[in-house]
Amino acid sequence: MKKFFETISNLWKIEELRKRILLTLGLLLVYRFGCQIVLPGMDSSQLDQLTQSTDSGILGLLNAFTGGAFAKASIFALGIMPYISASIVVQLMSIAIPYLQKLDKEGESGRKTKNQITRWLTIGICVVQAPAYLYSLTTAFGVPESAFLEGRGLDFMIPSVIILVTGCVFAMWLGEKISDKGIGNGISLLIMIGIIATMPQSFIQEFVSRTTDNTGGLMFILIEVILWFLVILASVLLVMATRQIPVQYARRTASGGYEKNIMGSRQYIPLKLNASGVMPIIFAQAIMFVPSLIGKSFNETTVGQWMEVNFQDIFGLAYNILFGVLIIIFTYFYTAITVPTNKMADDLKRSGGFIPGIRPGKETGDFLDKIMSLITLPGSIFLALLAVLPAIVVKLMDIQTGWALFYGGTSLLIMVGVAIDTVQQVNAYLLNRHYDGLMKTGKNRKVA
Questions:
Q1: Alpha-carbon distances of 104 from 38, 111, 185, 350, rounded to whole Å
Q2: Which of 80, 191, 287, 304 is an S-S bond match for 298, by CB 3.0 to 4.6 Å?
Q3: Distance of CA 371 to CAs 40, 101, 256, 339, 346, Å?
Q4: CA 325, 329, 333 angle in degrees (round to 5)?
């Protein structure tokens, strides 16, 4: 514990890191304040039906990603998800569109152009989603007409669409500023802070349910918390697990040639067990809307009625079996497009490196591809199990649905992944300052 407080003290002593942390906390606070501001022209006291509609299911998960802004008809109701959708679309289009592939090879200038394309696409998605959200408030979520103080005419719709689009763009700007001037990945931090914001309320509901309904009491709450920490540990292992491929680098001689012998430096290529992160879960959840829509289209038949009922329940057996299979498929798909094993082999060959026992070039690429295929299978199965774990705990332990969402799936993996990434960045600052001290004085020096 003493070492922990010493580390916190060291964080505060590094002026640049202190400024970055304070800026990050300040911008996150601005985002949380914005999530509480209701759209002009709406009565916030009449949004109870909207809150009930987003308590569980897919809408509950979407509401968690926006930090509750979706259920409050806030100016940040669209959250940062349109930007995430635009990023996914641009990334997938990079496979087929030569222009985007060319941008990837242009370095920093290409990255800036690609980011600009993503921003404009984000605005386009917002322009479609904003009126759809406003229209759905009454038709899908049951918000009464009286909640619209001046009616739902153009004098309400046009300004509200502009505000929602601006809110998303402002959230995107906050995320980019955090990434540039703060600490951690800004966009991911906005999503994580939104998810964490709904956690206390979910836990309180579970606590009240256990203690008042005589369904286990404090002992069962303790068991749930212990199980939750074990799931977090498993998620950390999934995020951090890597397969290290040994690489031998040739040593350059004084004459400019290479000596390929045991005197060359040995390093490793870290291949992640789960190279695709949470993207397979996001893809699979987007596809899971389709079966219920098909069921609604053919609800006059027995099969259609069965699909409509079973695929609307995100904690049902049929839903989660299909969900798990799709996650495994998308894990292989996303890993294949994001881990360019052939490019890795070419880069390794150009830098004078080779894998012991494997010829440089095509053989190296095939070898890396084989290893990725082998480690992706257990990684995808593990990811699928984590994704369906909320449904398992709901059925076996009768946990409240809001609290169950924190036992796995996108919410937990995002929190774990973002926390690890942020801690690694903070740790890099600490190591860098320690390294400077060694180089200048030979001892750890105190930082003013």
A1: 40, 7, 20, 19
A2: 304
A3: 55, 26, 34, 12, 17
A4: 165
| CA–CA distance, 282 with 206 (Å, rounded to integer) | 26
Contacts of 256 (CB under 8 A, 6+ apart): none
- 371, with CB counted inside 10 A (0-12, 13-18, 19+), is middle
* pLDDT tens digits, one per residue of 124-168: 999 999 999 998 888 777 788 888 888 888 888 999 999 999 999
